[in-house]
Design brief:
alpha+beta, 5-stranded mixed β-sheet, about 35% helix, about 20% strand
């Protein structure tokens, strides 16, 4: 059993990054290493994405980020996946989700997906941090952003995938 309320960063919890619609015997419980990988993505990327997106597109000039009711959350569709969950989800055998190095971010549409991607690229360029994958994905009218960061050997792979 894991503490789903445990904070990975200021605005992201372990429960958000391990939720799944797939019921498996293993309970989709990440290792300590996977939790550290999730924490790194949340602290170094998702918090910056949340702040930048809201500052640029949601808040009125001069409005305070921390106290505003206009702040939009970043919603994670999928984070860590156990091997059983990954198989049920149709994930790749070597998916970054298996190690807690990837998140799928829900997008309200193509425009938001592109804005999120642009912000993440800006963060990478400005901070000199590397990422492994930035995949803009669409299945019918549903859009999401797959973002992965490995502890090392990042490829900076960028692609648009349409199913």
């Amino acid at each position: 059993m894991i503490n789903k309320d445990a904070k990975l960063s200021q605005h992201f919890s372990l429960g958000e990054l391990t939720k799944t619609k797939h019921v498996t015997e293993d309970g989709n419980i990440p290792s300590h290493v996977a939790i550290e990988n999730l924490k790194r993505i949340c602290e170094n990327w998702l918090e910056d994405l949340r702040y930048s997106y809201n500052t640029l597109y949601c808040l009125e000039p001069g409005e305070d980020y921390e106290s505003s009711k206009n702040v939009e959350p970043i919603i994670i569709n999928s984070g860590y996946r156990s091997p059983a969950v990954n198989q049920l989800a149709g994930g790749a055998q070597n998916s970054n989700h298996l190690t807690g190095c990837a998140v799928d971010i829900r997008c309200a549409g193509k425009e938001q997906m592109i804005r999120y991607a642009s912000i993440l690229l800006d963060i990478a360029d400005e901070s000199k941090r590397e990422f492994d994958e930035l995949l803009l994905e669409q299945h019918g009218s549903v859009c999401w952003l797959h973002f992965a960061v490995r502890p090392k050997d990042n490829r900076r792979r960028i692609a648009f995938l349409k199913a």
